[in-house]
Amino acid sequence: GRAIDRQGAIEEAGQLLVANGAATPSYVAAMHQREASVSTFMGEGLAIPHGTNEAKGEIRRTAVSFVRYPQGIDWGGEQVKFVIGIAAAGDEHLALLQQLAGAFLDPASVQRLEQATTVDEIKAVLNA
């Protein structure tokens, strides 16, 4: 990622969702609204920004975006190296969160994500 702060990182993750057709630009605005009300920092260097419940209609299909910040960025006083944007139709966000939690609770998986150089390597860790 190229962002230098939390707002830029949310924008970057959200625009990836828009670019691949998973959400509308309005959904990105809802991601910022969510963050203004509740931090999406999850621990272990991970933030998972997502839109508000009111923005569900702006989701075209379930998808995630993955942005890595090797130097880390400040996320409300916490250090974040990974930002995973979520656009989830229906109740699919619960399954996505469980899958992501599994990857980030395993130090070996986090290390693999830090060292990954291809999309396929990242997918392999997140899909394990």
Structure overview:
The chain has 128 residues and is of the alpha+beta class. Helices cover 45% and strands 22% of the residues. It has five helices and four strands; from the N terminus they run ααββββααα. The protein has helices at residues 6-19, 25-37, 92-104, 107-115, 119-127, and strands at residues 41-43, 46-47, 63-75, 78-87. α1 runs antiparallel to α2. The mean pLDDT is 93.
Topology:
Elements: H1 6-19, H2 25-37, E1 41-43, E2 46-47, E3 63-75, E4 78-87, H3 92-104, H4 107-115, H5 119-127
Parallel strand pairs: 2-4
Antiparallel strand pairs: 1-2, 3-4
Helix pairs in contact: 1-2
DSSP summary: helix tally: 5
Distance between the termini: 23 Å
| Average pLDDT taken over every residue | 93
For the biggest sheet, the summary is: 4 strands, mixed
Based on helices, strands and strand pairing, what is the structural class?
alpha+beta
What's the alpha carbon Rg, rounded to whole Å?
13 Å
- Spatial arrangement of strands, main beta sheet: 1-2-4-3
Give the percentage of residues in beta strands: 15-25%
Secondary-structure element order, N to C: HHEEEEHHH
Essential attributes:
128 residues, alpha+beta, 4-stranded mixed sheet, 5 helices, 45% helix, 22% strand, globular
Q: What's the short version?
A:
This protein has five helices and four strands, in the order ααββββααα. The chain has 128 residues and is of the alpha+beta class.
